[in-house]
Write a structure and sequence with these properties.
Layout (H helix, E strand, L loop, with lengths): L4 E8 L3 E4 H8 L6 H4 L3 E4 L6 H16 L6 E7 L10 H8 L7 E5 L5 H14 L7 E8 L17 E8 L5 E12 L5 E5 L2 E4 L1 H22 L11 E4 L4 H14 L6 H11 L7 H4 L6 H12 L6 E9 L3 E9 L1 H7 L4 H7 L1 E2 L2 H11 L8 E3 L17 E7 L2 E6 L1
Parallel strand pairs: 2-14, 4-5, 4-6, 11-12
Antiparallel strand pairs: 1-7, 1-8, 2-3, 6-7, 8-13, 9-10, 12-13, 15-16, 16-17
Helix pairs in contact: 3-4, 6-7
Family: Belongs to the thiolase-like superfamily. HMG-CoA synthase family.
Keywords: Transferase
Protein name: Hydroxymethylglutaryl-CoA synthase family protein
Length: 409
Amino acid sequence: MSEVGIEKLNVYAGVAAIDVAELFRGRGLDSERIGNIQQDRRSLGLGFEDPVTSAVNAAKPIIDQLGEAADRIEMLIVSSESGIDYSKSLSSYVHRYLGFGPHCRFLEVKQACYGATAALQMALGYLGSGVSPGGKALVIATDISLVDARAGYAEPSTGFGAVAMLLGQTPEVLTIDRGAFGLYSYETMDSARPLPTQDIVDVDKSLFAYLDCLGNSFKDYQSRVPEADFVTTFGQLCMHTPFAGIVQAAHRKMMRDVARLSDPAVLRDDFACRLQPSLVYPRQVGNMCSGSLYLALASLIENRAGDAPVRVGLYAYGSGCSSEFLSGVVDARSRAALAPFAIADALAARTLVSFEQYEALLRTTLGVITPVSSRTVRIEDDLPLLPATRPRLLALARIADYERHYEWI
C-alpha cells in the first residue's frame, strides 16, 4: 500500500491580533498569571470574517498552487464548532468560493477540538483504500472566537482562524504511520457552545479530561504499537494547544507517570527539545479549536532544528470528550512544502489593536454566526485594520433570506 498523509498545509490566522499583556490590562486581570498560560498574542476576527471566510482564506493558496491538479480533490471535509446552519453544511459555501466542480463530496463534522483529526482519519482511510487512485482530499479546520469578559482567564488564550490540509499519496508535510493510533473517549460536560453567541467552560474538568485522555490514548497506542516508548520513539511531539501552559503540564505528567522520569533538568531539556518548537505559532495565535494541533505541527516543522527525518507523536483532544494519539514522520520535504505559504510572515504582518479597538470589534464578531434573515456587513468599517500588504481575502458582505453572500476584497 502506498503512503498517505498531508501533502500541503496552510494557516490563516486573521489579519488582526492583540497583545495578551494589553488584554490583561484592559480586563484588569492579574498580569502575573500570563506566565501560567504562556500566551503572547491572540488572533482576532474582523466584522466581515466568519468560519467560511477563514476556511477559504486558508485553503485558497493551496488551490492556487495546485492549478489544474485541484480537480483531483474529490472530498472536502470542514471541521468546525462554529456552524452557521443546523442542516446546510458551511462546506457548501467553501466548495463554491474555492471554485470546485460538481464531482466532489463535501460535508461538515463536529466534535469540538478533535473534529479535524476525525476528518483527517476519515479522509486518509478513503484515500488509503485505493478505490480512487490519485484522488486527493481537502480537510479544513475553521472556528471563530465567542469569548469576552465572561470567559475570565480563558479569553486571552482563545484564538481565531483556520488550517487547511491537502491529503494524498505524496505526503511531503507529514507521512502518517498506518495503524499506529490510540483512542480514548467518554461523555463529559467540560465545555459546550449552547448558543451561537456563547462558549461555556468548566476549566478544572476540562484540564483533567485533557490530561486523562492523553495518558489513556497513549496507552491504547501502545496496545497497537507495543514497542512504542514515550521518550525514545518520538523525536518530536505536538499536542492540541488550548494554551502552552497546559502542554507543558501534560508533558511533565507523561514524563513522570509513563517514562518514570522526574528530574527537573531532564524534564526541562526534553520539553525544550521535543515540544517547544511546536508552541511558537500557538503562542502567537491562541487556541484555534480543531486547527490547534495542526497549527502546532506547522510550528514544529518551521521551528525545529534541522531537517533530518523524525517521528512525531501527535495528541488530539476535543471537549465532550474524544481524543487520539497518532504518529507520523516529517523530513526535509516538510519545511520546503510549507515555505511557499510564508506562515510566519503572515503572523508578523497582523495589525495589532488596542484594548479599546478590541472591545469595539466584539460588538460585531460575537454575533457573526447568529442566524438572521438579513444583514448588511459594513466591510469599510474594518478596512483601516487591514495590513498594508495582504493577500486577497474573502469577506462576508451580506445575508439575505438567511443565505450568506461573500465577495473578494
